[in-house]
Design brief:
The chain has a single domain, classed as Vaccinia Virus protein VP39 (Rossmann fold), CATH 3.40.50.150. With 262 residues, it is of the alpha/beta class. It is built from twelve helices and seven strands. It is globular, with a radius of gyration of 17 Å. A seven-stranded mixed β-sheet has the order 3-2-1-4-5-7-6, sandwiched between helices. The longest helix is centred in the N-terminal third of the chain and has 16 residues, at 14-29.
């Protein structure tokens, strides 16, 4: 049986990271641009109708900046983690919706620059596990360095693909998908991988933008492919049950959905 320290070394070992990194490269060679989160938006989506299906994911170019060779990580840190960003200011409350305890395992899918590393690590404690999952090699390297610098030995960086979170089966008690669901290029496949990774009756928390034509900002209408109702339908079709919509202080443009794995 692998110890926690051994498991961490395996995930962080260069050979394992190389294996994960091959998937986006092969996808690109086969004609697709990867995204952990693709197809062009349909006319109905462009018009604001919440009729997206799991076969119609985010536009591939939405994730292209994160896969570039010259990713400016400090600029993304400033953008993602500035207190002017709604979810950054509310990160403690968002983390609280996961109902984590000492020794539990949680995955932050679309971890970005590591906004949730500290609150999740604190919630699961030194004997828990925090999988920091992202499609960007630059972000994964940044998370690895950040975790080492801050002594967060429970953090395991995982480089995912546009179709899978790359997590072991039944490996986590809870999943966080914050400001990331609308980046999924192949929602059906990615949701299937999340369902497989989550333990029975495990919790999936999705935080994303309210997309309401006539009310939401133009940026949201262009950037976010589907409204909340479509998101719920997609996730429930993947084997999850909507439990509730917990309120989080400070969130105005974003909603929180909490699902249980069936």
């Amino acid at each position: 049986m692998l110890t926690f320290a051994t498991r961490r070394r395996l995930v962080r070992a260069p050979g394992v990271v190389f294996a994960f990194a091959l998937a986006p490269v092969l996808s690109l060679l086969l004609g697709g641009v990867p995204g952990c989160a693709g197809a062009e938006a349909t006319p109905a989506q462009a018009a604001g109708a919440a009729t997206a299906t799991p076969e119609t994911g985010a536009r591939a170019e939405l994730n292209a900046p994160f896969l570039a060779q010259d990713v400016d990580v400090p600029a993304w840190v400033e953008r993602f983690e500035g207190e002017s960003r709604e979810i950054a200011a509310a990160r403690a409350g968002i983390a609280g919706t996961l109902q984590l305890g000492a020794g539990m395992a949680v995955a932050d899918v679309g971890a970005g620059t590591g906004l949730f590393l500290e609150p999740l690590a604190a919630a699961v404690g030194p004997h828990g596990t925090v999988y920091a999952v992202d499609i960007s090699p630059a972000f994964i390297q940044h998370i690895r360095e950040r975790a080492d610098k801050e002594g967060l030995d429970q953090v395991m960086p995982v480089l995912c693909t546009d179709r899978s979170a790359g997590l072991p089966a039944a490996s986590v008690d809870a999943l966080l998908v914050c400001d990331t669901y609308h980046h999924f290029e192949h929602p059906r496949d990615t949701l299937a991988s999340l369902h497989e990774a989550l333990r029975p009756d495990g919790l999936l928390v999705v935080v994303d933008f309210e997309r309401v034509p006539g009310s939401s900002r133009d940026w949201v209408l262009e950037h976010v492919r589907a409204g909340k109702e479509a998101v719920v339908a997609e996730i429930e079709a993947a084997g999850f049950r909507l439990q509730d919509q917990p309120p989080v202080a400070g969130l105005k443009e974003n909603y929180v959905l909490r699902f249980r794995r069936q």
